[in-house]
Structures are given as structure tokens and as C-alpha cells.
Amino acid sequence: ENAENMYFFSELALTLNEPEERVAPTDSRLRPDQRLMESGRWDEANVEKQRLEEKQRAVRRRREAEAVEAMEEGKDYEGYIPLWFERKVDAVTGELICVYKGGYWEAKDKQDWSVCPDIF
């Protein structure tokens, strides 16, 4: 119903970005620039998007510097390690895949997001 006014998206597609309570602070639905955009505050959203992108670049530069420092000292450097997933090789296809390693649902039940980085 009313699909022509909803870009012909399905109901599922239209609701994928709806806010949900009690999710990790890293959930993409909480992106402040996205929330501003969806409320029609375009100029503020653009400024916020630029701030977030610069924050991401700064984190990348810091990780790159840490990697160089570790290499110069002859140490291993793990780099970024995802919280809820791990990379594995698929036994059938031989491709690198991400597999859920646990922890998210337990953290959500406890509302203990202390392991989450401040990405916004």
C-alpha cells in the first residue's frame, strides 16, 4: 500500500533503520548524522557527518602509527579486532568470512556495553 510514495521499498526495507532501544552504542542506527538527516536537519547532519569521518580518520592514523611503531620494535601488532565476529576461512568455498563469536546478546541482556568503543 502506498508503495509509489515509499520508493517502492518493501515494508521490511522501510523499517530496517528504525531506532530500537537497548542496542549497543555502536549500532549504526544510532549514528547522530543519520538521525539528524532523518529528521530533516540537513545542514547539521552534514556537519556531524564530517566530524564523524574525521574521527574515523584519526583512529585509522593512530592504528597505522601503532603498527609502524610495533614493526620498528620487532613486535607483533594485531590491529583492529571485531567485538562480536571473527574472520575464518569457509571450509566449502575457501573464502574469508565473518562468523559470530558470541557476546552481543549477553551484553544486551545485561546492558553492559563497556567493551564497545566510542565511535560516534
From TrEMBL:
Pfam families (UniProt xref): Oxysterol_BP (PF01237)
GO molecular-function term, one example from the UniProt record: cholesterol binding
GO CC annotation, single: perinuclear endoplasmic reticulum
TM regions (residue ranges): none
Protein's name in the database: OSBP1 protein
